Every structure is written in structure tokens, then in C-alpha cells.
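Hey, can you fold this one?
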Amino acid sequence: MTTATKETTQSTITTSVKEKIEKVDRRDAKLALAHIYVAFIALFLGGIAGLLQVLVRSGSFDLPSFINYYQVLTVHGVLLGLVLTTFFIMGFQAAGVSRSCGTFTDKQRAIGWAGFWVSTVGLVAAAAMILTNEASVLYTFYAPLQAHWIYYLGLALVIVGSWLSSLAQVMRFNQWRKEHKGQTTPLLGFMVVVNNFLWFVATLGVAVEVLVQLIPWSLGLVERVDVLLSRTLFWYFGHALVYFWLLPAYMIWYVVIPKVIGGKIFSDALAKLSFMLFLILSVPVGLHHQFTEPGIDPLWKFIQTILTMFVVVPSLMTAFSLFATFELRGRELGGKGIFGWFKKLPWNDSRFLLPFIAMVAFIPGGATGIVNASYQLNELVHNTIWVTGHFHLTVATGVALTYIGAAFWLIPHLNGRKLTKRANSMANCVGILWAIGMAIMSGAMHVAGLLGAPRRSAYSTYGGSEQATEWISYQVAQAIGGSILFIAILIITALIIYVSFFAPKGEEEFPIGEVAAGSAPTPAILENFKVWGVIMIAVIIFAYTIPIFDIINNSPLGSVGYKLW
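Sure. Predicted structure:
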């Protein structure tokens, strides 16, 4: 064999190996797709429920007698706040770990499938109770509102299933570390493990609430539950849930978008530091959702307010890193002046446009979040529809639109099809419609909230007061914005079906960016999960031990044993 022939053969082998590494294994792809399809079914059904809500609140539509408004509200919250997010995240993370750390083993994949089916069975059980109006308790399921025990069991199974899915991903990441000792871990795989660690610790609170309090109560084994303890356990989980939603969007922003625009990841170390800061700061902040509740010492509310404000730090680090990447790439492409680089970004590429719109929406979403977490400003907006508007900027746009934009290229990658130019153009239309609809709906929610319009309720005239009359115009605006959003959801559903089953066969890239050549090396401490885990647990113990002890010790439920309920 000649030297040239040997070089050609070696080049072919190298190319083949490279393609194998860059393509998610078909077996892993099926696992990821199963999760993603459930997520988008939830988006469609939850979108219908959301449309019904804004129409009812506008005063122009009445639900049929066999449907309760709070039943619809529960459907919307559970499907979009819990099902869409959890299933998409587990699907995306499974694909991301397979892509960055290598194919799952048969055992790991079996654990992943077990997680999917446990979660799906739990989802069906919970959905059955909602549809039969046995669980119209909203997605927060606050006591003393009581649902059927099957609903609580179903939600518990969804959580347990997600733990199994997370376990499979962590096992694959740890296998990569053993096979590549001393090497810097893949950024995407590292981020997945951080998010799974955060999710497991956070869900312990809601698991205790459901298993120790709500299920025995709904079965009639105990007469009453401590409502304050129940709400505290929920919000131990509830605010960290927001970061569980957010961090996968950050994964896409940090890792995927640089590759899409043809640039480099600004800094591996900065990205990993921001995720570790989210890990230690996301859980011990739940009391800022309970400012108006008696029974919790104001000192501890204030302490957790301070901890909440610290979360701004990794968010600002993320903004700096991302826009540094954008500017560097724009200048590489010839952008001149202060903002010339901005024009050079790929605005006609849906893989970039949709996440970018999501990033922009997160700026006012973060600002309104600071209001919500402020000890005194919260008094103005607490339990008003302002808070709902905030969630629709952060979760329903900053997070959900990033997921949607990722799905349009991720599904074709996983099932061997292509995101065509026409589908890409339709995806861009989705992003524009979403931005317009959300600006109208969320903007109206914020203004109506400042005027005192309540959240978690159908529109109420409160006896025909002048204030309620003033609210109605903003309720109509919400209906207009919500209708535009539902049109976008219809297009999204059509596109998901198209890229899943009808797009031409081909190879769609799973973009993963490379770290910039001049970037500083990642310190080993940033990859030491034991150190950061100990810090996380220490902060949680500090933030919650005394408040929970006080709640139990001052419980009105009687004996010590009963107080634990």
C-alpha cells in the first residue's frame, strides 16, 4: 500500500469516527424523541387551556357548564409548567449527554426508558384526575385545596421518573470522566449534571410534601395538614424549579448558539462557574414567595431575599459571556463601529433568532423578577396578575421559546431528517408571532397587576367597581395577545409534525461550539462536585433549618407527632 493510499484510508477512518461522535446514536435518539414528543403534546393541549383562560377573563366567552375555570387553569399550569418543561429537559439532556459524552450503555439506556415510562404513567394518572375535576388545585396544589390521592401519586411518579432519567445521564457523564482522567469535561455534559443535581435536591422538598402530608391527608389517614409547612416545602422546590427550567435554555445559549453563528464559546471556565453559582443559590430562596404569610420570622424572609438577589450574578455573567461571543463573531465578519457587529449576526436562521428573542425577553423578565423578590415592592404586586405576566416573560418566552427553537433542529437531527428552508422561515414566523403576542399579553398583565387585578382567578367585577371596569380593557388585550400566541402554537405543532415525519431525509447538525483558543483553562475546583455540593447543602441548612423548626414547633395541630403532618 502506498503512502498516499495509507493517508487516504486514515483520513476516511478519521472522518468516519468524527461523524460517529457528532451524531447521536439512533437508540439514544429514540429515548430523547419519546420525551420531546410528550412535551409538545403538552404544549398544544396546554395552549388550548391558556386560550380558554384569556377568553374567559375578557368577559366575551363562557365555558361549558361541564368545565370549571380552575380545572382549565390547572391543566394549563400542570401541562406547561411541569410536563412540557420536565419532559423536554429530560429529552434534550439525554441527547446532549449522548452527543457530548458518548453513547449510553444498554444499562444506562434501560434506566432512561424506565424513567420515561414511570413519568408517563404518573402523568396519565394526574391528567385523569384533572379531567374528571378531582384535582382542580392549580399546579401549586396548595392546601387546604385538596385533590384526589391519585393526582398526588401521579405527580410523585413524574418526579421519580425524572430521577431515573437523570441517573442515566449522570452515569454516562461519570463513565466519560473515568475514560478521560485528567481532561476537562465536555461543557454540555457538565451542565446537564449540574442541572440534574439541582433538580434532585430541589424535588426532595415537594416529595416530602406529597408523600408525608398530601397523600395521607387525601386518603383520610389524617384529618388536617399544616398549611404553612406545606407551602414552605413547596416553595423550597418551587423557586429552584424555575432554574431547572432555565438552565437547559442556558445550555443552548452557551453551547449551541456560538456554533450556529460560526463563533467560539467565550470561556469554558466562566460558563461552569455560572452554573455552579446557580447550583448553590437556586434552592435556599423559596421564602421570598411567602412574604405575606404569617408564621415565618421576617428576618429569615429578609435573609432569603438577599440570597435571591445574589442569583443576579450568574445571570449577568451569562449575559456578558453571550454578548461577548456575539460581538467577537460579528467583528470577525466585518462589523465596524459600536454596533456594526450586531448586523452581521444570522438573523434569518431560526436556530439563532428564536433563542435570541428569548434572551431579549429575559431582560424585562429578570427586572420584574427583582420586583417580585424585593421585600417591600412585592407587597404591591403579590397575588396580582403582574406575577403571571412575569412568568410569561421568563418561563413562557425566555425558556419555552428557546426550547421550541431547539426542537426544530434537534428533532430532525435525532430522526435523520432536514430542517428545510421553508420550515426555517416558518420557524422564524413563530418567533415573531410569539414576540408580538407575548408583548401584548404579558404587558397587559403587568399593567393590570399594578392596578390590582388578581391572579389565579377568572375575571371578577368585584361588585361592578370602577377599578374592575378599568381592568377589563387589559383583559381584552390579554385575549388578543393570547390568541396570537395560540396561532403560533398551531404553527409550532404543524412544524413539529413536519420535521418529525415529512421533512426530507438527511443529516441535520447538533451544533456544539468549541471554546475560544485564547480562553483561560478551567480550574479543577470548578469540576469538583463534592465541594460545590457541600456548599449547596450548607447554605440550604442555614436558610431553612430554623424557619422549618419554628413552623413545626408553633404548629396549632396539637401533639408533637401530629405537628409533623
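The radius of gyration is 24 Å. Let me know if you want another pass with a different chain boundary.
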